[in-house]
């Protein structure tokens, strides 16, 4: 079993790559009476446009975006800004400039080619089988070895301003820590935490590795046991009341835990390999002398 080129689908990557795809998807969607999700002046992004974009993503990326509303909002805001710029450019006839028109034609051709290649290189529905998944897992165990991680929830109290403001924030955090030890931490976080993103999830910040933690929080959770609630932890931005939910020791993640990611990666690699093989076959079919090397040298000389 050869090594797979395993890749984690990160939010940041999804954002940069997704913006370009979103632009193409939204630009071709029908407006009609479709519900408007966002508006900026005359520019709009509709529900149908957004759903078209999301359906065009692979399942892991779509799930990450669906779970990260803030990122999805940034994608929509970026599209609104681009629509505004597009309207200004069109008003100035920018698309009629010869170099811009050439780039637009090339971009359009690339979209057609990519879509066609995707259609003819799709992995079989049954791929990979359980045996193939197990073999890939066994051959790539290093990729599934994770560092020690802590599953933490927090109640955050911002502390900015003068000494009096910081003192009040500390007192509020102390009160919240006492309430949290004898009550419903998640409900208290939803009601009182000043960090909106984790507050919406009952303070849950998810799994965090040692390397990802800021030093003050790392020092606090290192001595905690699951279920414990910390005293307020001071950081540059404020006070964190922490609850340790779980601890995951460093080691190899079991196949059951990484199965979905591994399957998605194997399917992506299968389809990429199939597309490359098809391209090579097309070039070979044209003969070994498809490239005029003398003409190619002339091009290089012309642009130097």
How do the strands and helices of this protein lay out in sequence?
Layout: H1 11-27, E1 36-40, E2 43-46, H2 47-55, H3 59-67, H4 69-91, H5 98-120, H6 130-139, E3 145-146, E4 149-158, H7 163-182, H8 185-192, H9 196-199, E5 204-209, H10 215-222, E6 233-235, E7 238-248, E8 251-252, H11 255-285, H12 293-303
Antiparallel strand pairs: 1-2, 3-8, 4-5, 4-7, 6-7
Helix pairs in contact: 1-2, 1-4, 6-11
Largest sheet: 4 strands, antiparallel
Helical residue percent band? 55-70%
The succession of helices and strands, N to C, reads HEEHHHHHEEHHHEHEEEHH
Distance between the termini: 45 Å
CATH class placement of one domain? Alpha Beta
Determine the mean pLDDT.
Answer: 86
Number of extended strands: 8
The assigned CATH architecture of one domain is Roll
Rg (C-alpha, Å): 26 Å
Question: What are the segments in which pLDDT stays under 50 over at least 5 consecutive residues?
Answer: 7-32
Number of helices: 12
Principal-axes shape call: extended
Please state the structural category.
Answer: alpha+beta
Cross-sheet strand order for the largest sheet: 5-4-7-6
CATH topology of one domain: Chitinase A, domain 3
Q: Roughly what fraction of the amino acids lie in strands?
A: 5-15%
């Amino acid at each position: 079993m050869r090594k797979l080129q395993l890749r984690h689908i990160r939010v940041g990557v999804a954002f940069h790559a997704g913006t370009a795809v979103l632009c193409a998807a939204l630009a071709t969607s029908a407006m009609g009476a479709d519900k408007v999700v966002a508006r900026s002046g005359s520019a709009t992004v509709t529900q149908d446009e957004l759903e078209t974009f999301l359906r065009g993503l692979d399942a892991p990326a779509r799930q990450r975006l669906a779970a990260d509303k803030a990122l999805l909002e940034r994608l929509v805001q970026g599209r609104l800004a681009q629509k505004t710029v597009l309207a200004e450019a069109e008003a100035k006839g920018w698309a009629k400039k010869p170099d811009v028109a050439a780039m637009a034609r090339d971009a359009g051709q690339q979209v057609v080619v990519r879509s066609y290649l995707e259609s003819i290189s799709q992995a079989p529905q049954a791929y990979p089988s359980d045996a193939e998944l197990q073999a890939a897992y066994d051959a790539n165990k290093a990729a599934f070895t994770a560092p020690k991680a802590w599953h933490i929830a927090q109640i955050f109290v911002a502390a900015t301003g003068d000494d009096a403001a910081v003192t009040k924030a500390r007192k509020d955090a102390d009160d919240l820590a006492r309430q949290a030890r004898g009550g419903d931490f998640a409900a208290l976080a939803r009601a009182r935490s000043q960090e909106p993103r984790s507050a919406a999830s009952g303070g849950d910040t998810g799994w965090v590795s040692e390397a990802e933690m800021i030093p003050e929080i790392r020092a606090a959770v290192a001595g905690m046991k699951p279920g414990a609630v910390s005293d307020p932890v001071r950081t540059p931005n404020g006070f964190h009341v922490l609850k340790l939910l779980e601890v995951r020791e460093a080691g190899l993640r079991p196949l059951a835990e990484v199965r979905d990611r591994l399957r998605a990666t194997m399917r992506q690699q299968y389809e990429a390999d199939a597309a490359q093989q098809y391209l090579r076959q097309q070039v070979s079919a044209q003969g070994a002398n498809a490239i005029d090397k003398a003409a190619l040298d002339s091009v290089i000389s012309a642009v130097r």
